[in-house]
From TrEMBL, chains A, B:
It comes from the Bacteria. This is Dimethylmenaquinone methyltransferase. InterPro entries: FAD-bd_oxidored_4_C, FAD-bd_PCMH, FAD-bd_PCMH-like_sf, FAD-bd_PCMH_sub1, FAD-bd_PCMH_sub2, FAD-linked_Oxase-like_C, FAD-linked_OxidoTrans_Type4, Oxid_FAD_bind_N. Keywords: FAD, Flavoprotein, Methyltransferase, Oxidoreductase, Transferase. It comes from Thioalkalivibrio versutus. Residues 34-213 form the FAD-binding PCMH-type domain. GO terms for molecular function: FAD binding; methyltransferase activity; oxidoreductase activity. Its cofactor is FAD. Belongs to the FAD-binding oxidoreductase/transferase type 4 family. One of its GO terms (biological process) is methylation.
Amino acid sequence: MTPLARELEQLLAPGDRLLDPADCWTYGADNSKLHAVPDAVAFPRDADMVRELVRLCRRLGVALTSRGRGTGTTGAAVPDHGGLVVSFEHMNRILEVDPDNRWLIAEPGATNGEIQQAAGATGFFWPPDPTSSAYCTLGGNLAYNSAGPHAVKYGTPRDNTLGLSGVAGTGEAFRTGVHTTKGVVGYDLTRLLIGSEGTLAVLTEATLRLTPKPEATRLIQAVYRDVGAAARAVSRLMARAEVPSALEFMDHSAITMIRAYAPDCPLPAAAGAILMIETDGTEAGIEATTAGIRRAAEGEGCVQTLSADTPAEAQALWAVRKALSPALRTVAPKKINEDVVVPVSRIPDLIAGLDRLAAEHAIKIVNFGHAGNGNIHVNLLVNPDDPAELAAAERCLDGVFTLVLSLGGTLSGEHGIGLVKRPYISRELDPVALGLMAGIKRTFDPDNILNPGKAPGPA
Amino acid sequence: MTPLARELEQLLAPGDRLLDPADCWTYGADNSKLHAVPDAVAFPRDADMVRELVRLCRRLGVALTSRGRGTGTTGAAVPDHGGLVVSFEHMNRILEVDPDNRWLIAEPGATNGEIQQAAGATGFFWPPDPTSSAYCTLGGNLAYNSAGPHAVKYGTPRDNTLGLSGVAGTGEAFRTGVHTTKGVVGYDLTRLLIGSEGTLAVLTEATLRLTPKPEATRLIQAVYRDVGAAARAVSRLMARAEVPSALEFMDHSAITMIRAYAPDCPLPAAAGAILMIETDGTEAGIEATTAGIRRAAEGEGCVQTLSADTPAEAQALWAVRKALSPALRTVAPKKINEDVVVPVSRIPDLIAGLDRLAAEHAIKIVNFGHAGNGNIHVNLLVNPDDPAELAAAERCLDGVFTLVLSLGGTLSGEHGIGLVKRPYISRELDPVALGLMAGIKRTFDPDNILNPGKAPGPA
């Protein structure tokens, strides 16, 4: 038995720990498909126990990797340095919902869906809602600053979090932020921790800023001749004072794939790109808002727009988008899913460049995503049993990142760095800024025990 | 001649420096009325020169205080450690406006008004617009995270800045952030620098996120029997999906003062509190939006609401609010102007507590401010020639801060800490968080030359 296992046996009840490697196995993976078995898994029930666990790991000099439900795609939750995985399954309470002051306090293990449900009961929502909302956790949303489709109007977790509690790598517990929408006393540690992928502190509680639910929503499907026309429509839509509440994009490869997989999906023959545009507002104002946004979507290169006025009609329109994921799985057993971001006006250059890279490396690339933020999910479809194709995909990916940076973009909008993007971050980040980040890491975690080797932290 | 003066003579053209103490005198104050004469003033023209100046100060071990137009109220720009003041009068260019991607790049010496003008020419605005917009600078707005009345709908500088360039206390230049509305590669240094009052880096450039100008705005004046009724109306207004674009508050003391100073101002006798409510939206939607917001404002304790449909009518309604500043100056030559924040539902408790403190210490207190954020400007009116009253005001202020913290609030929404609030920050901030902030300060500025003794930095 390792010293870690021996001490955990003393510290935690049997239901709050796993010490057998076979039991620990499933806590070694996330959705990146990378895997490493931790030495032990702990399920703390409160912030005091989190503090004890951090102190224990620091004393023993072993790594501590925080974990939600493992829906991350970059390996940030994979314990490749061994040590302890801290899973938040037992710290998943909604502690307080205050509609008068528009906040909700929750533990990191609560799922995004549970938070939406608790907020929804009082007429509010928390704007970040990744596609995995039903099972991804608040802790993961904060670790990667994950937002999903509504960020175009409502922002990311950094825009929707008031304060945090956590434990630094020193083993000291601390609070950040305020319970108010303004506050400038001291440095902004709240936003520094959001997006830090568990490398600075283990979060134990978050105070989230709530937004009132809109009275009404509408959905428009707009079909374009080509991606350039769709991207110019995105620019027109984003120049209006009333932005859509979601502005999702699919390129021609995605449409080809949907046609092959779901030939009944009603799409005009000339469809070269699609925008799914959600609007929201008051009952009194929604028709005017939607009409204005639809007019902006219609223009040069627009083949047709369809509007859904009822939930059933909306569901029919979303069916096209929803056909994409099973189609992708059918075509290729492995997809390398990147979530690059470029300035909105550069989307056509991005898609054209991706087409060139796909041809050059003989790799199928399918693109869709959150066009209003310029956040495009670039999917390289590969056969994992073909080593030559895997190597070509790696070279292609390298070209994708070079392209994105040449367009003034960033390598990740909401998936983070984790393990898989570490080789690339020095291409994007200023070397002096990287040095400052390393200093911040040393301040919070002097012994480098918190998720070592992830995000911009040292190996 | 000091070594600093000698080197500045070599480094800078005569028009880009001040070395005579008489010339330096005016660069020693801000709107806190505190004053200290710097040893020299430099007016750099580009980021390279800023870097040279930081390196010079580091080598000589003298303090460097960055300065905009000195509209700050907390002494953050007062060079109480002597050394060099760096004034951004010659770095005030708008470098780029990109309406397609909704950004504007500017140097820190540009005024907020100049930025609004440049953004406005393409149909956009930058949401932060403090009352001093015409003469306060971007650098100061970023230093204090200053926002003004529209933050209730559009957020503060932290919500509206994409990236920064700056020079750390090490003398190294660096970039932070992205040109996109999403990005999670590396720690969020952009927001860490915003609100840090020049203690971590000297900013040389900022990429600001623009918002399309609304097509239409309307103004409602709502008069309440008492502050409790007004605060409950604020809660009702903030629970709606469509928030006002401004939600300003004046308490009974402010109304009494206006009555005395401007007896012609049309206010009902029963006025115990006033809300000024601005709405914005599309031409098509503004009437419905305004009607909905007006209905929410009307309710228990509401004496009357007036709505302005033309600019002239709006000006007449604003006249009441605008009478306040000259009234305050007439009543008392000195006001101690605090900008505390409490959760919106606690505004009645705050005002009741302030009434008690005013009576207890025999100090006149007038309250107004940004009610939608719970950000109340608390003004203690004192005669600076009366030492007993000044001492009473200090004791009263101490009570104000205790009250605010007991209500879950924060000591500053947008004025910052500077010199005047330093004695109080350890009451609000967690000691471990303060230690982490000190570590961040050491990382950015190991020799403590950047604005020493301000904000949470060491003395």
